């Protein structure tokens, strides 16, 4: 048995011949005494899951993005069959490059584009509208009375007379600003989409659908038109297309993490092994998803990298522990077992906290977030096997380089006391701890004051998931600038008794709400059956605006209703649809509309007439914002509650829990303040980051605090305990914090804006959680872990049971 010096005292290290293979916990004996079996099982499982991962699909569902149990969405889904086009739809603006739409060549191109789109799988053909569809009609008053017909008549032949007839019909159709631009230079093809392809029964593949739209665009833009496409399907299609670049950023982040880990260790084999085990966890995760019936979407596609990042963090700790043990003279097998023995509980607790950070997302009633939580939890479960078990076992076979092992003690460890480590060590001293705590409190107060201005929902027009200068957002700006009927539609449903949708009293209430909504900032225009009645009655009265009123004559109202488009009411005449066209779907705009409608409904709903929210893409987003707002705080309470409970089980000290958790609280507050400063709202894309920052951030504190408690219970002073923690795990905390922050920060260059936002926020939280664990945690410990309590029982030497009680010990203890 050999003996080598340690940081604090001489510790006996058994050689391989005298090492007791039956020492340690039952889990350690089971795993390390059957190493070959464990490795063989992992290799076989990896091969199987790599094969199943090839069947993983990448897609998105419109209904998965919405909170189905929210009352607004429940109202929409209940009336969905009568609200064609008010859910998932695409608008295709076909613009004439020269001249106006009143041109034979343009109308011929529009017809061909319309016909091609009509035949695309997944299109709700009955609800599709363009100038060429029979449902697009005009109504007018002639000397013979009321007249009407399709905007493009059946006898259209492209002659000047036919073109002039089309121009007149468009003016009388009420479609200017709706299907036809104000300047007459473009028109809209409105395409309502089905959730599934009726021919195959499979969910609509948005990537394929978007590619087909782009193919149509490319063919016809080479002729005499420009084509602009907006809608949920196009956003998802562009996001999926951008995932190719996301994979490039993942590769860059992995290379950065590998390079920095090698710079620290100077050991090729152990560095590659850490990267390999982290990648194996990702393979297991991706392979399990299709087996469990899950797929990836543009939001959960970021999760595999987070799993890799977590794996690198834990893997680096295991590798560092083995390196230091080998440097002290331990055989690679003994070093692997001692490292497993010291760090397994801390690592398991950290991973459970990570899992909790993901799992609490399931309380949010939006399926895409719940799926993200499941996908991430599967990845964290894989890490327990690959990085806490497989990695130490593999290192017990290949070991680490001798020079790298000795160097591990010189990286601010036992062989040196560098300036950085001396500086960090001072934060456990009272004269440094006091100002540190004061500064942290001031930062927390300032951050909280700023976070009160945090908005819910989108803060930018167009698709905030994409860059402002992306093709989609340029298309959206064109549509918003040329049409009163923007792509942001908020619909109010008015439920009446059957056959009573055109009752005078009902239309008067609808008219009153329409007027109030039209006064709100952000509302471009409205369209209702009441407005149609006003216009038709005026037309029947030779255009005299004195008649721009609702007649208290039910026969007249019924006559107008009979010729009204079915989009304004349903076949049973028990549901009216009020269309509110918004300039954007910013959180403030949606909130104003929702509050106004709710106030009006509270004052005007009766037993027979009910104003219900909400349909249209803007109405659905308003409901989503409400769910996100309600869930954002509850989510944090749950994740912090779970983290506190797990830390209590691990540390068995409420004081230690406060030291570990308070830095996380500060980081969460500062992250929200940063979101305010950067105009990033809390929404489906950013909400998970807040929870993940807590779950992942506790890892650093767990590794540092576990070492401190072990040394304090062994009799060391707080200063000594913290310096020991710095030497043993603190340097790896610093390494992984900086490495992961740099890796995700590269995402800010991504063309996918929500990925750039997530990268920036995650980089901030990685760095601040690291700083909190290395600076604020010891400062808090100075006041929350008094010397008298630390020194209690100091005369008793540390034992393996003492180490196990806190999950880790910084020195080697003879297990015999």
Look at the structure and give the CATH class of the largest domain: Mainly Alpha
| Principal-axes shape call | elongated
Instruction: Provide the residue-averaged pLDDT.
Output: 81
Structural class: alpha+beta
Q: What's the count of strands?
A: 11
Keywords: Cell membrane, Membrane, Transmembrane, Transmembrane helix
Domain SSD: 275-397
Membrane topology: Multi-pass membrane protein
Subcellular location: Cell membrane
Explain what this protein looks like in three dimensions.
This is SSD domain-containing protein. InterPro entries: MMPL_dom, Mycobact_MmpL, SSD. It is a multi-pass membrane protein. There is one protein chain. The chain is α+β, with helices and mostly antiparallel strands and 816 residues long. It folds into 4 domains: 1-33 and 266-409, no CATH class; 83-237, no CATH class; 416-452 and 652-811, Multidrug efflux transporter AcrB transmembrane domain (Multidrug efflux transporter AcrB transmembrane fold, Up-down Bundle), CATH 1.20.1640.10; 477-622, no CATH class. It has helices spanning 26-32, 35-53, 71-78, 104-118, 160-173, 206-221, 232-265, 268-291, 303-327, 332-359, 367-398, 402-408, 419-425, 430-451, 471-482, 504-518, 529-540, 554-562, 587-604, 616-651, 654-677, 687-713, 718-745, 753-784, 787-791, 800-806; strands at 2-5, 10-13, 89-96, 137-142, 145-150, 186-192, 225-231, 488-495, 523-527, 575-582, 610-615. It has a 4-stranded antiparallel beta sheet. It has a 3-stranded antiparallel beta sheet with strand order 6-3-7, with helices on both faces. A two-stranded antiparallel sheet has the order 1-2. Strand 4 (137-142) and strand 5 form a beta hairpin. Helix 10 (332-359) packs across helix 22 and helix 16 runs antiparallel to helix 19. The longest helix is centred in the C-terminal third of the chain and has 36 residues, at 616-651. The protein is elongated and about 110 Å long. Mean pLDDT is 81; it is low at 1-11, 411-416 and 788-816.
């Amino acid at each position: 048995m050999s003996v080598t010096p340690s940081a604090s005292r001489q510790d006996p290290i058994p050689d391989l011949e005298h090492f007791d293979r039956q020492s340690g916990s039952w889990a350690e004996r089971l795993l390390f005494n059957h190493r070959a079996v464990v490795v063989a099982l992992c290799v076989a499982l990896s091969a199987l899951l790599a094969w199943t991962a090839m069947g993983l699909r990448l897609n998105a569902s419109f209904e998965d993005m919405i909170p189905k149990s929210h009352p607004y969405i429940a109202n929409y889904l209940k009336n969905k069959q009568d609200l064609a086009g008010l859910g998932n739809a695409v608008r295709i603006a076909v613009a004439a490059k020269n001249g106006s739409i009143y041109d034979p060549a343009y109308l011929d191109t529009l017809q061909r584009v319309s016909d091609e789109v009509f035949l695309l799988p997944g299109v709700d053909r009955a609800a599709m509208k363009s100038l060429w569809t029979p449902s697009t009609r005009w109504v007018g008053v002639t000397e013979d009375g009321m007249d009407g017909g399709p905007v493009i008549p059946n006898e259209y032949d492209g002659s000047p007379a036919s073109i002039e007839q089309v121009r007149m019909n468009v003016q009388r159709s009420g479609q200017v600003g709706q299907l036809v631009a104000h300047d007459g230079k473009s028109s809209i093809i409105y395409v309502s989409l089905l959730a599934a392809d009726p021919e195959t029964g499979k969910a609509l593949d948005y990537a394929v659908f978007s590619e087909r739209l782009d193919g149509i665009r490319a063919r016809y833009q080479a002729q005499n038109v420009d084509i602009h496409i907006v809608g949920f399907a196009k956003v998802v299609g562009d996001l999926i297309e951008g995932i190719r670049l996301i994979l490039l950023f993942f590769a860059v982040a992995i290379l950065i993490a590998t390079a920095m880990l090698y710079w620290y260790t100077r050991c090729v084999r152990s560095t590659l092994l850490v990267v390999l085990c982290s990648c194996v966890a990702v393979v297991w995760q991706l392979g399990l998803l299709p087996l469990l019936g899950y797929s990836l979407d543009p939001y959960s596609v970021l999760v595999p990298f987070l799993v890799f990042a977590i794996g690198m963090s834990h893997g680096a700790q295991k590798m560092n522990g083995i390196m230091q043990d080998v440097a002290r003279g331990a055989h690679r097998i003994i070093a692997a077992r001692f490292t497993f023995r010291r760090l397994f509980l801390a690592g398991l607790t950290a991973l459970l906290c990570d899992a909790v950070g993901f799992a609490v997302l399931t309380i949010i009633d939006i399926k895409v977030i719940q799926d993200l939580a499941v996908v991430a939890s599967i990845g964290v479960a894989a890490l327990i096997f690959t990085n806490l078990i497989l990695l130490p076992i593999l290192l017990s076979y290949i070991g680490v380089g001798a020079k790298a092992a000795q160097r591990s003690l010189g990286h601010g460890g036992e062989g040196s006391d560098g300036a950085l480590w001396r500086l960090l060590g001072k934060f456990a001293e009272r004269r440094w701890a006091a100002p540190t705590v004061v500064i942290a409190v001031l930062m927390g107060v300032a951050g909280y004051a700023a976070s009160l201005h945090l908005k819910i929902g989108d803060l930018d027009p167009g698709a905030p998931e994409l860059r402002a200068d992306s093709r989609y957002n340029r298309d959206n700006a064109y549509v918003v600038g040329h049409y009163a009927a923007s792509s942001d539609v908020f619909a109010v449903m008015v439920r009446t008794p059957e056959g009573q949708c055109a009752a005078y009293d009902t239309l008067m209430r609808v008219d009153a709400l329409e007027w109030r909504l039209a006064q709100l900032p952000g509302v471009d225009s409205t369209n209702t059956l009441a407005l149609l009645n006003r216009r038709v009655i005026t037309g029947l009265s030779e255009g005299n605006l004195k008649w721009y009123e609702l007649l208290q004559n039910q026969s007249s109202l019924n006559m107008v209703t009979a010729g009204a488009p079915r989009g304004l009411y349903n076949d049973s005449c028990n549901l009216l649809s009020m269309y509110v066209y918004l300039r954007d779907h910013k959180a403030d705009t949606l909130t104003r509309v929702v509050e106004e409608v709710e106030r009006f409904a509270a004052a005007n709903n009766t037993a027979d007439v009910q104003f219900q929210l909400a349909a249209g893409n803007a109405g659905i987003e308003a409901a989503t914002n409400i769910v996100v707002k309600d869930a954002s705080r509850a989510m944090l309470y749950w994740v912090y509650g779970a983290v506190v409970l797990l830390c209590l089980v691990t540390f068995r000290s409420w004081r230690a829990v406060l030291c570990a958790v308070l830095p996380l609280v500060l980081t969460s507050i500062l992250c929200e303040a940063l979101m305010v400063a950067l105009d990033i709202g809390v929404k489906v894309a950013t909400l998970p980051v807040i929870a993940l920052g807590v779950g992942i951030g506790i890892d650093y504190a767990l590794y540092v605090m576990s070492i401190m408690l072990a040394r304090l219970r062994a009799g060391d002073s707080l200063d000594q305990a913290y310096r020991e923690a710095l030497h043993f795990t603190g340097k790896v905390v610093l390494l992984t914090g900086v490495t992961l922050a740099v890796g995700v920060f590269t995402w800010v260059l991504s063309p996918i804006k929500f990925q750039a936002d997530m990268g920036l926020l995650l980089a901030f939280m990685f760095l601040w959680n690291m700083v909190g664990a290395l600076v604020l945690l010891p400062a808090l410990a100075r006041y929350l872990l008094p010397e008298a309590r630390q020194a209690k029982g100091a005369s008793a030497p540390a034992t393996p049971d003492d180490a196990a009680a806190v999950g880790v010990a910084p020195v080697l203890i003879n297990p015999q």
